[in-house]
């Protein structure tokens, strides 16, 4: 695939200590690195120090960078990650390269004490700041270079502050329209999915934009207008392919929440089928289990199947009690389908819901009224500048949001791979 003019401009100017590409998703930032930048840097290394690659996690680094490189260059030049006594290592173009996750401070110890001749960073805004600060002190060879990419985040993000510093930085910012190789219909769909949210500014326009106010603005506006845009059509039978139930446990002023979600065939979308909130005040575990069994019974009576129940993984005692009670009821087979929530990062759950709504792939039924209200009222918190956080001060229904997200989070990649 020929390089765009914007990509060629980067190659002409990436001789600085820090060479960064920020901007829209799918704008060609990482492709350039896989095809040219990383191979060129590694082949030019002079053995002054280590070569290192860092990503949010090893999984995302493999998916975002190593797999595409392997597809471009073949397995002979791009090996697989192997674990050794000195860490995770991959052979790239005949040279040993260390690979690290950068999402947690515990990874700092893995890079202390070594000098880096070359470092590559993927999804930098998702890193733990401490890892990046340690990286700065390790990039100490005469020939040291860092290449990296990220999507923009909050303008107060620590990495944006670094980009605005007087360090030796070449930074190039992309919009989605800077990649002319993308099919126009794909770009149009992506713009539609993010329309009306902070993600449009970040992932389409490539802007560092603050998250503020209502999280799901198009949904909230639709509910306020009463236009029924997200309501499943009354004249269309709802026949989900999979049915998941999410359970969030209340406490300290919050409530238990149950949400039943239907996953449509081929992951075409999701439907909020039913939802409920239960006040845990003066009620014991038996009461909670009985309420959940009643909820599941109603869902099963209408749809004839429940595939999984995903519960807040922080409450193992309650989960075990629910399994015990299920085994003693007519829905006994459900006991073996009770699983822990995956609890992926909240910001990723929010992004997934935004994509579904923006793409016209989220609906709800009248029986899911508490879910409807929770989504319409969800707000960004302004408590910590520079950090995207959902407001969780008791004024909004976080419990129902969590329960809903438990039902779809395990299918994140499938639901976003359209």
TrEMBL record:
The lineage of its organism: Bacteria, Bacillati, Bacillota, Clostridia, Eubacteriales. It comes from Faecalibacterium faecis. It comes from the Bacteria. This is Phage terminase large subunit. InterPro entries: P-loop_NTPase.
């Amino acid at each position: 695939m020929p390089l765009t003019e914007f990509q060629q401009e980067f190659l002409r100017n990436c001789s600085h200590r820090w060479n960064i590409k920020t901007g829209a998703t799918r704008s060609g930032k990482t492709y350039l690195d896989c095809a040219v930048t990383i191979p060129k840097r590694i082949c030019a290394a002079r053995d002054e120090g280590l070569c290192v690659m860092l990503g949010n996690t090893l999984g995302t680094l493999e998916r975002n960078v190593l797999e595409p490189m392997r597809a471009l260059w073949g397995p002979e030049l791009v090996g697989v990650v192997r674990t050794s006594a000195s860490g995770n290592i991959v052979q790239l173009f005949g040279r040993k390269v260390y690979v690290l996750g950068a999402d947690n401070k515990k990874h700092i110890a893995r890079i202390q004490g070594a000098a880096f001749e070359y470092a590559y960073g993927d999804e930098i805004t998702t890193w733990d700041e401490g890892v990046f600060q340690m990286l700065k002190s390790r990039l100490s060879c005469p020939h040291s270079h860092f290449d990296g990419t990220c999507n923009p985040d909050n303008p107060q993000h620590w990495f944006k502050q670094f980009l605005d510093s007087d360090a030796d930085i070449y930074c190039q910012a992309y919009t989605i329209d800077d990649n002319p190789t993308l099919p126009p219909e794909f770009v149009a769909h992506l713009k539609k999915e993010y329309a009306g949210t902070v993600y449009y500014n970040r992932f389409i326009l490539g802007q560092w934009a603050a998250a503020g106010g209502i999280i799901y603005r198009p949904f909230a506006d639709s509910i306020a207008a009463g236009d029924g845009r997200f309501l499943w059509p009354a004249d269309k039978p709802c026949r989900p392919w999979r049915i998941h139930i999410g359970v969030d446990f209340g406490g300290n002023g919050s409530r238990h929440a149950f949400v039943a979600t239907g996953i449509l065939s081929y992951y075409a979308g999701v439907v909020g089928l039913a939802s409920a909130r239960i006040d845990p005040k003066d009620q014991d575990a038996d009461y909670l289990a009985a309420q959940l069994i009643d909820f599941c019974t109603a869902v099963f009576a209408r749809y004839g199947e429940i595939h999984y129940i995903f519960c807040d993984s922080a409450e193992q005692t309650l989960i075990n009690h629910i399994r015990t009670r299920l085994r003693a009821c007519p829905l006994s087979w459900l006991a073996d389908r009770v699983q822990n929530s995956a609890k992926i990062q909240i910001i990723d759950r929010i992004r997934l819901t935004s994509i579904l709504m923006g793409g016209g792939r989220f609906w709800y039924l009248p029986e899911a009224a508490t879910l409807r209200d929770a989504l319409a009222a969800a707000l960004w918190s302004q408590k910590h500048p520079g950090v995207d956080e959902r407001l969780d001060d008791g004024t909004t229904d976080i419990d129902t949001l969590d329960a809903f997200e438990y039902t779809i989070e395990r299918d994140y990649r499938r639901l976003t791979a359209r």
